[in-house]
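LAB NOTEBOOK - FOLDING QUEUE
OPERATOR: T.R.
BATCH SIZE: 2
PURPOSE: Compare the predicted structure-token outputs for two unrelated chains run back to back under identical settings.
PRIORITY: normal
REVIEWER: second-year student, initials M.K.

ITEM 1
FIELD SEQUENCE / FIELD STRUCTURE:
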Amino acid sequence: SEPSHFRRTREEDVKGRVLGYEGRLTSGYFNNITEAGVSSHRRGTHESLLDLARRYASDPEAVACELRLNGSWRYWARELQSVIRQHRTLEEVRRTHARALSTRIRRAA
């Protein structure tokens, strides 16, 4: 069995793994943040949204009916809004960092 992400002590335990999700920084060399709470939830939500989109592409009426009948459209609407906000925030942070780096480079020259 694979060791817990809290007990990773060897480099071999993490070889070949992606050590971050959606641009997040991991803390600690042997930690795999993709196994932890929020990142794991986001990955699962992402996969569920992709599955929903695939099903909708093949049979839109059935998916729309399912979402209406069980009320899950409310959940997915909130999740999509959350994803949109996260992407906008991440883009703003990236632009801010790029401007700051550009300013530093100009000052250093």
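ITEM 2
FIELD SEQUENCE / FIELD STRUCTURE:
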Amino acid sequence: VFHVEHTDCWAWHMFNVSHIDESNYPSKVTVYFDKGGSQGGRNWQCIDGSTNKLSDCNGDNKKLRSGEWYVEGLFAELDAEEEFFYDGQSKLLYFYPAGLM
């Protein structure tokens, strides 16, 4: 899940990731969303790649337009003190305690 701040900093939107294209990694990684973006009352934080106009964020070929953002649910991002990751499949909680570095 991507948490994305409105460009004017008044709302946060959440987007579910449908898939990630890493075929051109490390120069380019493309993240595709399948739903989300309406939590702030509007569905306008994406730009349609075909028309280059503001659009809802459902479907492929949409480019996210935002302010600050963060991601949740990625084990690879467990890289700083006091972060955690829960693996629902194995039912394991991973925690990065403070003071280890």
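REVIEWER COMMENT (ITEM 2): The mean pLDDT is 77.
FOLLOW-UP: none requested
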